[in-house]
Amino acid sequence: MALIAPSVLSANFLQLSNDIKMINESQADWFHLDVMDGRFVPNISFGLPVIAAIKKEAKKVMDVHLMIEEPGKYAEEFKNAGADILSVHIEACPHLHRNLQQIKSLGMKTGVAINPHTPVQQMFDVLHDVDVVCMMSVNPGFGGQKFIEYTLEKIKQLKAEIIRRGTNTLIEIDGGVTLANAKQIIDAGADVLVAGNTVFGSENPMETIAALKKI
Ligand code: DX5
Ligand code: ZN
After folding, report:
1. Which of 19, 37, 63, 174 is flagged as catalytic?
2. CATH of the domain at 166
3. How many whole angstroms separate alpha carbon 93 and alpha carbon 35?
């Protein structure tokens, strides 16, 4: 059974409080919070004040996915805003090891996000310092995109290396997860499913979360 992390990016921002309550009452495990800076990715989403506001109502793990340049500059502020897990993009971190030590020393779980085209082998040497790999299965920047199939192969490669090294790293799949492909993704080795459009675009988001949880 995978952990489910609804992506707040697809929530109704005018009624955010309702959607936060729905996630609290659902079988979801984490809040997935997508921060975009318009530089690392071609879109701007929300930032610190919105995350701090969500934190006041959220009763579950705050999983913050930073799609920003120079994430180290803001790590402490995201901790103060309420992040429990902080994921930085490997492509935005020339000194990834340093970023991971910083996140740990601030008392958060470490996350490394990786774009679809980036070989997963690039993070093998730091795996013992990584709590969560946020494996992108779409190009980051937008919700509602189509799942990129070859990501399944990357999940398998990463899972094998995690087992080989004996780390406790979780594999989180982010982008294009649906009720139709979730089983395949879990079978490949994923531990956490992010779902934006599949949850919030459905008639009954709470039931959709329950359905994902059952897979
Ligand atoms: C994309 C974000 C995702 C996004 C997923 O850049 O990182 O978390 O919200 O949305 P869906 O599930 O709709 O692909
Ligand atoms: Zn994300």
Report:
1. 174
2. 3.20.20.70
3. 16
Q: pTM higher than 0.70, yes or no?
A: yes
Q: Provide the CA 131 distance to its chain's centre, in angstroms.
A: 12
Distance 113 CA to ligand 1 centre (A): 12
Residue-number span of the structural domain to which 76 is assigned: 3-214
Partner residues linked to 42 by β-bridges: none
**Ligand 1 environment, Cβ below 6 A:** 7, 9-10, 32, 34, 65, 138, 140-145, 174-177, 194-198
CA 198 to chain centre: 15
Q: Give the total number of structural domains in the chain.
A: 1
Task: Please state, in angstroms and rounded to a whole number, the distance separating the CA atoms of residues 142 and 151.
Answer: 17
Question: Tens of pLDDT along the chain (215 residues)?
Answer: 899 999 999 999 999 999 999 999 999 999 999 999 999 999 999 999 999 999 999 999 999 999 999 999 999 999 999 999 999 999 999 999 999 999 999 999 999 999 999 999 999 999 999 999 999 999 999 999 999 999 999 999 999 999 999 999 999 999 999 999 999 999 999 999 999 999 999 999 999 999 999 99
